[in-house]
Amino acid sequence: MAAYKPVVVQACPKLGEKITQDTLYWRGYKTPVQIKEFGAVNKIDFSPVPPYNYAVTASSRVSGFSEAFMLLSFSTGRCNALLFFQIHIYGRYSQEPIKTFSRFRDAAYCATYRDDGRLLAAGSEDGSICLFDVSGKAPLRQFEGHTKPVHLVGFLSDKYRIFSGGDDYSSNLWDIPSATEIISYHEHTDYVRCGCASKVNADVFITGSYDHTVKLFDARTKSSVLTIEHGHPVESVLLFPSGGLLVSAGGRYVKVWDVLKGGQLLVSLKNHHKTVTCLCLNSSGERLLSGSLDRHVKIYSTTSYKVVHSFNYATSILSLALSPEDETIVVGMTNGVLNVKHRKPEEKSENTQKKRQPAYRTYVKGRSYMPKQEDFCVSKPVKRVLRKYDKLLRSFQSSKALDAVLEPPIMLHTPEVTVAVMQELHRRGTLRSALAGRDEKQVNLLLTFVARRVIEPRFTPVLVTVADMITDIYQPVVGQSAIVDKQFLKLQEAIGKEIDYQEELLEVLGMMDTLFATFTKKKDTCLEENKSNGVTEIIETNMNF
Amino acid sequence: MVSPGALRVVRCGGSALRGARAVFSADSKQVGRGAGYLLCASGDFVKVYSVNTEETLRLMGGHADLVTGIQLNPHNHMQLYSSSLDGTIKLWDFMDGIPIKTFTVGSKLLALYALASAEDSVFVVIPKKGERDTFQLVSVKLTKGAGQDLESKELSVVLDGVGASVKHIAFGREGAYVVSVKDVTLQVYFFKRKLLNRFSLSTVKTKGGDNRFSCVVCHPTEDCIATGHADGKIRLWYLNFHHRKEYTYSTLHWHHDIVMDLAFSVEGTRLLSGGVESVLVQWHNESSCQKDFLPRLGSPIEYISMSSDGALCCTLHTDNRITIINSNLRFSRSIQGLIKSRDVKTGLVVDPRTKALVLNGEPGHLQFYSLQSDQQLFSLDIVQRQYIHQAGLKQSDLVKVAFSAQGTWLATVEESEEVTDPELQLKLWFYSEETQSFTLNTRINTPHDNHITDMCFRDMDELGDDSLILVTTGRDCVFKVWVMVEDTDPEAHESVSWSCDFVGSYHNYQATNCCFSEDGSLLAVSFEETVTVWDSLTWDLKCTFCHPPGNIRNICFGRLTCSKYLIGATDYGFLCCWNLLTCALEWSAHLNIVVLQPDPLSEHIAAVSWLSKESSLFVFKPNEPRPLYIQRNLCKEKILLAAFVPRDEPETISSEKYLWLRKSQLFFLTDTQELMTLSTKSLEERLTPSSKQLAVEESLPVTPFSLLLGKHRHQQAQEDNLGKPVVHNKQEQASPAVKELLHTPAHVLPSASFLCTIFINSLLISKENKSAEEVADEVEMESEKADGDSDEEDVTVMEQEDTSPMELLGEMTCKLSKSQEKELRKIRKMDYSWIAAF
């Protein structure tokens, strides 16, 4: 004897992205905080020590334009001209800068923290490099030597040296205590715009340049140790914490190289459709983030190098940073907006309001009893919990079952349940009697549901039948109730719209078919291939009633 | 005995159990022994089931046509009467499965009733001579004679114009009267007073429907009759003997459709009724307010029968299932063989894992039927919806089934009966080793826009799961290729699902059949009149074949050495064989082929043709147009489906003509849903040896006395022959108990804990015995020498092995002193107490 089988509710898979562990993780950020900077944000750097403040370097692209703007702001008298040549330090949760470095003659670039978070270095449009104490205001040191703007500044991991790269094609190494140039490499043939120091070796740093190459320098030698041909102007480079893998971004490509094998290409990723501008690793080193001018941040798994998640932003992205414990994602954009996302606090698993459990003694009673051999065991049948509509369907009460699924919580949040029960009633041949004999309020409810859901493809076949029956049953009373008549009109409108939409889709399909036909190779005349099955499935014939 | 070469068509399952009500044997009460039997008419046979183990114990065959009635002999509960359409009544000893007597009546027998009050006659329903569709109830005097085959032509008509079914006649308490119903008339005939009362219900159809009678039963103790009606009502009639025109009845109504059968409990306090709703209803005290239900029994109830002690009740269903129900209306167990479904749409498929036949079972289920044990292995719920037993509903049912080569994947297609919008679902099931059953992996809604006509997996044993491809063909003029895709999440658990890979079509013709070649490189899809061959790697169309006129009905590829051939059968009666290398027609034959089935293990292909109301079987190899084997007129019914089932071990077949049956066995299903096979063995060989052995074992005398006496006599005779007693060593002493234990069928044994002590005891050698043993030891030495002398003696020794305690006893009567005799008597008591306990 079989038990009653509950109604099967067809679960419809959600289209679009799949829910994975990664999606869940990366969705665990709050809605972003937008902070307006005065120019395109080209560098964001997190302090490596708590409280993880971050330095934001923003500048106008064209200095001439910024001067014109400066004059304008002078005339209004509202703000200082020096505002444009500033580095802002933000606290993690502050929306206003907690500190500002403003002693620049020209636009500042690439403000970078030292490993201990106490020193900050920045390049400048006029070719000088300034070194600040985080707590102070005036620069501690100034390194003069570059003849063109310096877009790259960084500390070597021994903390006493600074490397820099400039638009004069040179990359230099500076000594902090004496503020002198140690060595200067003139190997690149175009602007040097990005670079990175090895965390393992205090003498090694890499620079990327617009001459399509990434070069690895050792401070102990007079020339570069390794040259990697990226193929596009290099916008950003990154070394893995182990120092073995190098990631370069330029053009639409992100490429991963094995440094220890002499710069062998491991993998080339082409997931953006515009230039990739920035790269970033998460704290564990398992995910790689890349931001691009196409307004996307893509997250890759560093084991499989596949995109596991992607973020969408309003404008093109220039810079990207992740706080040391992945607490915050900060993205800087071309329109000067700083987008800050904080991670949601971990949800507490235990609910504060728990149901009162029975006392421990009662709870445990009899559970620990082991049946002896001569005991006769009577097994209790497992009680199955049936939904209300299932209970009613089991006893063949169709009208009540339909009432049960027309209750607002079910109807609004799980329309598939309502439709499944309607389908089951139709299968049993009792749908008509279940729909009949309802008062104005209930008919109104039914029609609202049908008019709203009939255009959803997964519900259409069932709801068309339902709508057909309702019009059949309640035809004689049309005109007696204003509310019901209004709903009928709404239904008509919804169906009219859907038919128009389907016609348009058919037109598009026709156009696409002509396009496909021109592309098809004419190798076999009798062969008809219909590759566009995905498209045809969407199109379905609309029944009119 | 048939000559060993001849091939016979053998029925092997699925016979309708619907001939008559099932009968419980009278000893079903003896739970300790566990020998409750259930007797059932099944086609031409009478089947004996064990109530406790659901096993088929015996198959009693002998009737030449359908068995229509079975009744226990009221004077001897170990005997059974059975009647058949072949005009004979047989008396059986169903414990041994032996026919005792055969009475030839002459005309067709449609129902059988045996009464305790009627001394030597039974009642049967026979067609009235000279009139069609008129039947009469006659009493047949069973002649007493010495022989086995007797003529009994002494017929006396009791009632005229009765219904043909066994349900239309019932006998009142103590056989005082007989009730017959037909259409709207009720007849009561009192035997004593020779009085016939006839009542009619109004023929005017009331709003509830027609009130024709469908069945009748009588109260066991009161003068009360219950009748079931076609509109679902049950009427209870109270007979009044004095006023013939006055009758009263009360009505019980729950069923919404025809009441198929009724049964009173033994005391008459409860009435059971069943119908197409497949709900068993129990009415208390003839009132309509008190009733219990046993719902969802699976299929419409055809017959209800009660055991004589009232402890059990069983229902026979229209799909050949027997359900046994406790007296408190609890489902106890069900006996099911090949479940009969309304329409076998799935075809006969062989599960590669269990070698079971797979086909439609109960609605929405897939049954796995074991051919060896004639039992259903399990039933897989595919549709997973509540089945409503009601006429006129559009039910959705399973239409196509396919297994992958290893049986790890199962694909099923279900559709509703609606013509315009078949709610199609393609489901893919994965066999999980942990749960040992199929679990749903992927469900695809509307895989095709119209009905799916065929489905097949790419069978590739060696390439593993990656190469698994499923092809479906539909009436929406396309065929679709489905492949497994792994989940996109790189770090999630390995999970696969199925999705569409390719859609192919050919000139907007409906795709009808599909088939993969043996190596999986080619796919043949038939589109109405044309067969197209596709490359399974690139999905390019390679070539087309056509044999107009007529649509292609079946296609299959040749195997092994014949893999270059493609066989097709058309509607207009052509069997064609194309060569794939030359792309030309190799040969064709004019045959109306309905079934085309290739053997998976050899090159042979079986084709069944249907021409002028007879099915013929042709077995051929594709490389030669001449068939290897032809059997005309295979069976009376139309053969719908066939399947080759691989044998576990190749059979040794003497004749070269039947070599094609060596590796696999051919089964086919007729339109009456009987499963048949071809066998070279005769019927006697085919009967399962175990059941025969069982019969022999049971027919042995089991009383300790007879054992003792028998052995003693034997011993005496032997002593006379040899002049010396034969005694055996100690190990052999234990053998009677052990042997008894091992050879008694498990279902009649008491519980193991009960047997254990006896078993251990029987292994012990008691001290008292020893003295006798020591005496005997010396004798043994001599006897062994004597044993070596002749083979004849050896045989007698073997027979004697299990008798040593008795032998000793026998010796003692001659030799031992009285004190020792007493002690041994004690041992004897101990040893045989367990036999008495049976």
From TrEMBL, chain A:
GO terms for biological process: positive regulation of transcription by RNA polymerase I; rRNA processing. It is found in: Nucleus, Nucleolus. InterPro entries: U3_snoRNA-assocProt_15_C, WD40/YVTN_repeat-like_dom_sf, WD40_repeat_CS, WD40_repeat_dom_sf, WD40_rpt. GO terms for cellular component: nucleolus. WD repeats lie at residues 143-184, 269-310. PROSITE patterns: WD_REPEATS_1 (PS00678), WD_REPEATS_2 (PS50082), WD_REPEATS_REGION (PS50294). Keywords: Nucleus, Repeat, rRNA processing, WD repeat. Transmembrane segments: none annotated. Gene3D superfamilies: YVTN repeat-like/Quinoprotein amine dehydrogenase. Pfam families: UTP15_C, WD40. Residues 369-515 form the U3 small nucleolar RNA-associated protein 15 C-terminal domain. PANTHER family: U3 SMALL NUCLEOLAR RNA-ASSOCIATED PROTEIN 15 HOMOLOG (PTHR19924:SF26), UTP15 U3 SMALL NUCLEOLAR RNA-ASSOCIATED PROTEIN 15 FAMILY MEMBER (PTHR19924). Ribosome biogenesis factor. Involved in nucleolar processing of pre-18S ribosomal RNA. Required for optimal pre-ribosomal RNA transcription by RNA polymerase I. Part of the small subunit (SSU) processome, first precursor of the small eukaryotic ribosomal subunit. During the assembly of the SSU processome in the nucleolus, many ribosome biogenesis factors, an RNA chaperone and ribosomal proteins associate with the nascent pre-rRNA and work in concert to generate RNA folding, modifications, rearrangements and cleavage as well as targeted degradation of pre-ribosomal RNA by the RNA exosome. This is U3 small nucleolar RNA-associated protein 15 homolog. It comes from Poecile atricapillus (Black-capped chickadee). The lineage of its organism: Eukaryota, Metazoa, Chordata, Craniata, Vertebrata.
UniProtKB/TrEMBL annotation, chain B:
It comes from Poecile atricapillus. Residues 789-804 have a biased composition (Acidic residues). GO terms for molecular function: RNA binding. Keywords: Nucleus, Repeat, Ribosome biogenesis, rRNA processing, Transcription, WD repeat. It comes from the Eukaryota. SMART domains: WD40 (SM00320). The gene is Wdr75. Gene3D superfamilies: YVTN repeat-like/Quinoprotein amine dehydrogenase (2.130.10.10). InterPro entries: Beta-prop_WDR75_2nd, WD40/YVTN_repeat-like_dom_sf, WD40_repeat_dom_sf, WD40_rpt, WDR75. Residues 778-807 are annotated as: Disordered. WD repeats lie at residues 60-102. Signal peptide: none annotated. It is found in: Nucleus, Nucleolus. This is WDR75 protein. GO terms for cellular component: small-subunit processome. It holds the Pfam family Beta-prop_WDR75_2nd.
